[in-house]
Amino acid sequence: MAEAYIVGAVRTPVGTKKGALKDVHPADLGAHVLKELVDRTGVDPSAVEDVIMGCVMQVGPQSLDIARTAWLSAGLPEGVPGVTIDRQCGSSQQAIHFAAQGVLSGTQDLVVASGVEQMAMVPMGSSVAMALEKGMPFPYGEGWGERYGQQEISQFRGAQLMAEKWGLSREDLERFALESHQRAVKAIEAGYFDREIAPLAGLAKDEGARADTTMEKMAGLKPLREGWAITAAVASQISVGASALLIASEEAVRRYDLTPRARIHTLAVTGSDPVYMLTGPIPATEKALARGGLKIDEIDVFEVNEAFAPVPMAWAKDTGASLEKTNPNGGAIALGHPLGATGGVLMTKLLHELERTGGRYGLQTMCEGGGQANATIIERV
């Protein structure tokens, strides 16, 4: 049976909206991690067969196939193609899936999976601005309206619906958010992320974690809507960042003298209710575990994207996963969520945490727009 291995994984530090990376062009963000990936693995870049890059807001400076422009901006060989994909917040996790599937199918031996999002330069929602400007109730069309009516469809409402359905109070959510910041601050101070980060623009550490966050400060924030439990404190941060991983076949490992770091064990993707939107990680995790023949307690580390606090909290309740093993070094509430890059950022963190702790299995999952989710299990080698 064919195998697909992660042989390299690198990311930028995740910058804040007004931070050190705010003026870095997205093509240069992507170029930075692509060049660093080539340098760190020592691979001949002309041997790479494709560059798959996740990016959600593919407009303005992120348009015209940012995967291709980032690769060329890095000064890498013109003979290597690139393709940009959008599975919303899971775009670069899907890039990992596509890269692994190319290798597992036997049609490719060496593929880059990457992601980028410059949210300071290309704001969230930019890609649907035209539809909204034309007065369309949704940027979807008549069929969508006939199926789901005229109700609000948004990640913010989805997070509130989850909080209500799973009985999560505002205080519950804020306690979870505080823990995310505390874990992130501890990890940054301990240098846990140093090996995986390629410093850029004078920035070598993630910018978002707040050591001075308290329950009292969070309690003073206004909810996103009157009566809601959701505030900015329990949501992921608007961020800037990029990530890149090199996926290789057994043949490529031998031919180019590469060092396998983890085996792609199981891939799963699923759809879920697009109104709740954010519940997909629950069935995606169940699907991945069943397909991989594993039980939840066999997983050593989980990375579950903290788009909003209700997502990992509800996920843990339904799957029985340990929150102690989930986002052990903080999540997107503290460290940020550069949409198209986050899947690769989380996988890079997951790989390095398994290596740091000696764990065997890691599972990553994240909610995605439209009610979808990817789940990936890797095995450290």
From TrEMBL:
InterPro entries the UniProt entry points to: Thiolase (IPR002155), Thiolase-like (IPR016039), Thiolase_C (IPR020617), Thiolase_CS (IPR020613), Thiolase_N (IPR020616)
Active site residues per record: C89, H337, C367
All residue ranges annotated as the Thiolase C-terminal domain in the record: 259-380
Gene3D superfamilies, alphabetized: 3.40.47.10
GO molecular function: acetyl-CoA C-acetyltransferase activity
Nucleus keyword on record: no
Keyword terms, alphabetized: Acyltransferase, Transferase
Domain of life: Bacteria
EC number: 2.3.1.9
Pfam families from the UniProt entry: Thiolase_C (PF02803), Thiolase_N (PF00108)
Enzyme's top EC category: transferase
Domain Thiolase N-terminal: 5-251
Family label: Belongs to the thiolase-like superfamily. Thiolase family.
NCBIfam families noted in UniProt: AcCoA-C-Actrans (TIGR01930), PRK07801.1 (NF005865)
Protein name, as recorded: Acetyl-CoA C-acetyltransferase
Species whose genome carries this gene: Actinomadura viridis
